[in-house]
Amino acid sequence: MKRTLKILCTDLDRTLFPNGQQAVEPEGMNNFVEFVRDRNFRLIYNSGRCKQEILEGVKEFGAPAPDIMIGEVGTKIYFREGEEYREEREWPKWLGENTPDWDVGLLRDLVLREAGARLQPEYHQNPFKVSFFLEPLSTAPAMADKLSQEIRQKIPGATTVYSVDETEGEALFDILPAAATKLHALEYVRRKLGEKREEVFFSGDSGNDLEALTGGYCGALVRNAIPEVKEALMERAQKAGVEDMIYLCQGDGPWGNGYFVSGIMEGLAHFGWAPSRKEKRADK
Predict the structure, then answer these.
(1) For residue 26, how far is the Cα from the chain centroid?
(2) Residue 78 pLDDT class (50, 70, 90 cuts)
(3) At what angle do helices 182-193 and 90-98 cross, to 10 degrees?
(4) How far apart, in Å, do the first and last CA atoms of the chain sit?
(5) Cα separation of 185 and 208, whole Å?
(6) DSSP-derived 3-state class of residue 164
(7) Would you say the pTM of this structure is higher than 0.85?
(8) 7-92+180-283: CATH, from 1.10.1670.10, 3.10.180.10, 3.90.190.20, 3.40.50.1000
Protein backbone atom coordinates (compact mmCIF):
# COMPACT_ATOMS: atom_id res chain seq x y z
CA MET A 1 0.00 0.00 0.00
CA LYS A 2 1.42 3.36 -1.02
CA ARG A 3 2.11 5.73 1.84
CA THR A 4 1.00 9.35 1.88
CA LEU A 5 3.76 11.92 2.27
CA LYS A 6 2.85 14.25 5.14
CA ILE A 7 6.27 15.57 6.20
CA LEU A 8 9.38 16.06 4.07
CA CYS A 9 12.24 16.77 6.43
CA THR A 10 15.81 17.24 5.30
CA ASP A 11 19.23 18.17 6.55
CA LEU A 12 20.74 21.19 4.77
CA ASP A 13 24.52 21.37 4.36
CA ARG A 14 25.71 18.83 1.79
CA THR A 15 22.19 17.41 1.59
CA LEU A 16 19.75 20.04 0.31
CA PHE A 17 22.46 22.67 -0.01
CA PRO A 18 25.04 21.47 -2.59
CA ASN A 19 28.04 22.94 -0.80
CA GLY A 20 30.27 19.88 -0.77
CA GLN A 21 33.08 18.69 -2.99
CA GLN A 22 31.08 16.51 -5.39
CA ALA A 23 29.62 17.62 -8.70
CA VAL A 24 26.35 19.54 -8.48
CA GLU A 25 23.47 18.31 -10.62
CA PRO A 26 22.55 21.38 -12.75
CA GLU A 27 18.76 20.99 -12.43
CA GLY A 28 18.81 19.50 -8.94
CA MET A 29 17.42 22.45 -6.99
CA ASN A 30 14.96 23.37 -9.73
CA ASN A 31 13.57 19.82 -9.61
CA PHE A 32 13.17 20.05 -5.84
CA VAL A 33 11.52 23.48 -5.99
CA GLU A 34 9.06 22.19 -8.57
CA PHE A 35 8.33 19.09 -6.48
CA VAL A 36 7.45 21.06 -3.34
CA ARG A 37 5.71 24.00 -5.05
CA ASP A 38 2.14 22.69 -4.79
CA ARG A 39 2.82 20.45 -1.79
CA ASN A 40 0.23 18.81 0.38
CA PHE A 41 2.86 18.09 3.00
CA ARG A 42 4.93 20.08 5.51
CA LEU A 43 8.46 21.00 4.46
CA ILE A 44 10.89 20.96 7.40
CA TYR A 45 14.56 21.92 7.41
CA ASN A 46 16.49 20.13 10.15
CA SER A 47 20.00 21.51 10.55
CA GLY A 48 22.90 22.32 12.82
CA ARG A 49 22.63 25.90 11.52
CA CYS A 50 20.99 28.65 13.53
CA LYS A 51 17.83 30.38 12.26
CA GLN A 52 19.62 33.21 10.46
CA GLU A 53 22.09 30.85 8.81
CA ILE A 54 19.24 28.65 7.56
CA LEU A 55 17.51 31.64 5.97
CA GLU A 56 20.77 32.84 4.44
CA GLY A 57 21.29 29.39 2.91
CA VAL A 58 17.75 29.33 1.51
CA LYS A 59 18.49 32.59 -0.29
CA GLU A 60 21.99 31.60 -1.42
CA PHE A 61 20.99 28.25 -2.94
CA GLY A 62 17.51 29.20 -4.17
CA ALA A 63 15.79 26.65 -1.95
CA PRO A 64 12.07 26.88 -1.13
CA ALA A 65 11.09 28.48 2.17
CA PRO A 66 10.24 25.80 4.75
CA ASP A 67 7.06 25.54 6.80
CA ILE A 68 9.08 24.63 9.90
CA MET A 69 12.74 24.99 10.85
CA ILE A 70 14.55 22.78 13.35
CA GLY A 71 17.88 24.41 14.07
CA GLU A 72 21.04 24.07 16.12
CA VAL A 73 21.00 20.25 16.14
CA GLY A 74 17.45 19.96 17.41
CA THR A 75 17.62 22.54 20.20
CA LYS A 76 15.50 25.18 18.42
CA ILE A 77 12.16 24.87 16.57
CA TYR A 78 10.47 27.58 14.49
CA PHE A 79 7.02 27.55 12.84
CA ARG A 80 6.30 29.77 9.87
CA GLU A 81 3.64 32.45 10.35
CA GLY A 82 3.21 34.48 7.17
CA GLU A 83 6.66 35.69 6.18
CA GLU A 84 8.10 35.28 9.69
CA TYR A 85 9.15 32.34 11.86
CA ARG A 86 7.95 32.00 15.45
CA GLU A 87 10.08 30.11 17.95
CA GLU A 88 8.31 27.23 19.68
CA ARG A 89 8.64 28.33 23.30
CA GLU A 90 7.32 25.08 24.77
CA TRP A 91 10.30 23.15 23.36
CA PRO A 92 13.12 24.69 25.47
CA LYS A 93 10.81 24.62 28.48
CA TRP A 94 10.29 20.89 27.92
CA LEU A 95 14.04 20.36 27.49
CA GLY A 96 14.77 22.06 30.79
CA GLU A 97 12.19 19.97 32.62
CA ASN A 98 13.54 16.75 31.14
CA THR A 99 17.26 17.46 31.66
CA PRO A 100 17.62 18.44 35.34
CA ASP A 101 21.35 17.62 35.43
CA TRP A 102 22.27 19.88 32.49
CA ASP A 103 25.27 22.10 33.27
CA VAL A 104 26.85 24.14 30.43
CA GLY A 105 29.75 25.40 32.55
CA LEU A 106 30.74 21.91 33.66
CA LEU A 107 30.64 20.65 30.08
CA ARG A 108 32.81 23.46 28.76
CA ASP A 109 35.41 22.94 31.45
CA LEU A 110 35.48 19.18 30.91
CA VAL A 111 36.02 19.37 27.14
CA LEU A 112 38.44 22.30 27.12
CA ARG A 113 40.82 20.38 29.38
CA GLU A 114 41.60 18.28 26.30
CA ALA A 115 44.42 19.52 24.09
CA GLY A 116 43.01 20.10 20.62
CA ALA A 117 39.49 21.02 21.77
CA ARG A 118 38.24 24.56 21.27
CA LEU A 119 34.87 26.23 21.35
CA GLN A 120 33.04 27.01 18.13
CA PRO A 121 31.92 30.66 17.68
CA GLU A 122 29.34 31.98 20.13
CA TYR A 123 26.53 31.96 17.57
CA HIS A 124 26.83 28.14 17.53
CA GLN A 125 26.17 27.99 21.28
CA ASN A 126 22.86 28.19 23.13
CA PRO A 127 21.56 27.23 26.59
CA PHE A 128 21.04 23.62 25.42
CA LYS A 129 23.93 23.18 22.98
CA VAL A 130 27.68 23.36 23.53
CA SER A 131 29.77 22.99 20.37
CA PHE A 132 33.49 22.42 19.84
CA PHE A 133 36.11 21.82 17.17
CA LEU A 134 38.38 18.82 17.79
CA GLU A 135 41.90 18.92 16.37
CA PRO A 136 43.71 17.33 14.65
CA LEU A 137 41.20 15.54 12.44
CA SER A 138 43.23 12.31 12.51
CA THR A 139 42.77 11.81 16.26
CA ALA A 140 39.37 13.51 16.61
CA PRO A 141 37.26 10.29 16.56
CA ALA A 142 39.21 8.80 19.47
CA MET A 143 39.01 12.09 21.38
CA ALA A 144 35.25 12.26 20.76
CA ASP A 145 34.78 8.71 22.10
CA LYS A 146 36.79 9.48 25.23
CA LEU A 147 34.93 12.74 25.88
CA SER A 148 31.56 11.10 25.30
CA GLN A 149 32.25 8.51 27.98
CA GLU A 150 33.36 11.17 30.48
CA ILE A 151 30.34 13.35 29.72
CA ARG A 152 27.87 10.50 30.23
CA GLN A 153 29.45 9.78 33.60
CA LYS A 154 29.22 13.41 34.73
CA ILE A 155 25.85 14.29 33.16
CA PRO A 156 23.75 11.20 32.32
CA GLY A 157 21.13 13.41 30.67
CA ALA A 158 23.57 14.64 28.02
CA THR A 159 24.33 13.17 24.61
CA THR A 160 27.08 13.90 22.09
CA VAL A 161 27.19 14.18 18.31
CA TYR A 162 30.42 13.82 16.37
CA SER A 163 30.54 14.76 12.69
CA VAL A 164 33.00 15.95 10.07
CA ASP A 165 32.65 19.01 7.87
CA GLU A 166 34.36 17.54 4.84
CA THR A 167 34.39 20.86 2.99
CA GLU A 168 36.34 22.61 5.75
CA GLY A 169 38.14 19.49 6.97
CA GLU A 170 36.96 20.10 10.54
CA ALA A 171 35.81 17.71 13.24
CA LEU A 172 32.68 18.96 15.02
CA PHE A 173 31.60 17.88 18.50
CA ASP A 174 28.21 18.91 19.88
CA ILE A 175 26.86 18.26 23.37
CA LEU A 176 23.15 18.59 24.01
CA PRO A 177 20.46 17.07 26.18
CA ALA A 178 19.62 13.50 25.22
CA ALA A 179 16.08 14.78 24.68
CA ALA A 180 17.23 17.45 22.19
CA THR A 181 18.51 15.82 19.03
CA LYS A 182 17.37 16.18 15.42
CA LEU A 183 15.27 13.07 15.99
CA HIS A 184 13.65 14.25 19.22
CA ALA A 185 12.81 17.65 17.75
CA LEU A 186 11.31 16.04 14.65
CA GLU A 187 9.30 13.67 16.83
CA TYR A 188 8.01 16.63 18.83
CA VAL A 189 6.87 18.33 15.61
CA ARG A 190 5.43 15.11 14.15
CA ARG A 191 3.32 14.49 17.23
CA LYS A 192 2.22 18.13 17.33
CA LEU A 193 1.05 17.82 13.71
CA GLY A 194 -0.56 14.44 14.37
CA GLU A 195 1.20 12.56 11.55
CA LYS A 196 2.38 8.93 11.37
CA ARG A 197 6.06 7.97 11.30
CA GLU A 198 5.75 6.07 8.03
CA GLU A 199 4.39 9.23 6.38
CA VAL A 200 7.60 11.14 7.15
CA PHE A 201 10.60 11.31 4.81
CA PHE A 202 14.02 12.32 6.16
CA SER A 203 17.20 12.85 4.17
CA GLY A 204 20.73 13.49 5.41
CA ASP A 205 24.42 12.98 4.78
CA SER A 206 26.44 12.94 8.01
CA GLY A 207 26.89 11.45 11.45
CA ASN A 208 24.49 13.85 13.12
CA ASP A 209 21.71 12.60 10.82
CA LEU A 210 22.03 8.91 11.75
CA GLU A 211 19.59 8.98 14.66
CA ALA A 212 16.86 10.64 12.59
CA LEU A 213 17.54 8.38 9.60
CA THR A 214 16.90 5.32 11.79
CA GLY A 215 13.93 6.83 13.65
CA GLY A 216 11.30 4.76 11.83
CA TYR A 217 10.78 7.21 8.96
CA CYS A 218 11.43 6.64 5.27
CA GLY A 219 15.08 7.69 5.20
CA ALA A 220 17.51 8.47 2.37
CA LEU A 221 21.25 8.96 2.70
CA VAL A 222 22.51 11.06 -0.19
CA ARG A 223 25.30 9.60 -2.29
CA ASN A 224 27.98 12.08 -1.16
CA ALA A 225 27.94 10.68 2.40
CA ILE A 226 31.37 9.34 3.36
CA PRO A 227 31.82 5.52 3.56
CA GLU A 228 32.06 5.55 7.37
CA VAL A 229 28.63 7.17 7.64
CA LYS A 230 27.11 4.65 5.23
CA GLU A 231 28.50 1.76 7.26
CA ALA A 232 27.37 3.27 10.56
CA LEU A 233 23.89 3.88 9.15
CA MET A 234 23.38 0.30 8.04
CA GLU A 235 24.67 -1.03 11.37
CA ARG A 236 22.20 1.16 13.24
CA ALA A 237 19.38 0.28 10.87
CA GLN A 238 19.98 -3.45 11.37
CA LYS A 239 20.02 -3.08 15.15
CA ALA A 240 16.81 -1.03 15.02
CA GLY A 241 15.17 -3.39 12.53
CA VAL A 242 14.42 -0.62 10.04
CA GLU A 243 16.59 -1.69 7.08
CA ASP A 244 13.58 -1.64 4.75
CA MET A 245 13.00 2.03 5.65
CA ILE A 246 16.52 3.11 4.60
CA TYR A 247 17.71 3.93 1.10
CA LEU A 248 21.30 4.64 0.03
CA CYS A 249 21.31 6.88 -3.03
CA GLN A 250 23.15 5.46 -6.05
CA GLY A 251 22.90 8.19 -8.68
CA ASP A 252 21.49 5.82 -11.30
CA GLY A 253 17.97 7.25 -11.65
CA PRO A 254 16.30 10.06 -13.60
CA TRP A 255 17.13 12.75 -11.02
CA GLY A 256 20.86 12.88 -11.66
CA ASN A 257 24.02 11.87 -9.86
CA GLY A 258 22.54 11.26 -6.40
CA TYR A 259 24.65 13.93 -4.74
CA PHE A 260 23.02 16.58 -2.54
CA VAL A 261 19.51 17.64 -3.59
CA SER A 262 19.42 15.19 -6.52
CA GLY A 263 19.82 12.47 -3.88
CA ILE A 264 16.78 13.78 -2.04
CA MET A 265 14.75 13.46 -5.23
CA GLU A 266 16.13 9.96 -5.83
CA GLY A 267 15.11 8.97 -2.30
CA LEU A 268 11.62 10.38 -2.77
CA ALA A 269 11.32 8.39 -6.01
CA HIS A 270 12.46 5.21 -4.23
CA PHE A 271 9.61 5.53 -1.74
CA GLY A 272 7.08 6.34 -4.46
CA TRP A 273 6.65 10.04 -3.78
CA ALA A 274 8.48 11.41 -6.81
CA PRO A 275 8.09 10.03 -10.37
CA SER A 276 9.78 6.69 -11.00
CA ARG A 277 12.44 6.18 -13.64
CA LYS A 278 9.96 4.87 -16.21
CA GLU A 279 7.50 7.73 -15.62
CA LYS A 280 10.29 10.31 -15.68
CA ARG A 281 11.64 9.03 -19.02
CA ALA A 282 8.14 9.06 -20.46
CA ASP A 283 7.88 12.75 -19.60
CA LYS A 284 10.96 13.59 -21.68
Answers:
(1) 23
(2) very high
(3) 120
(4) 28
(5) 13
(6) strand
(7) yes
(8) 3.40.50.1000
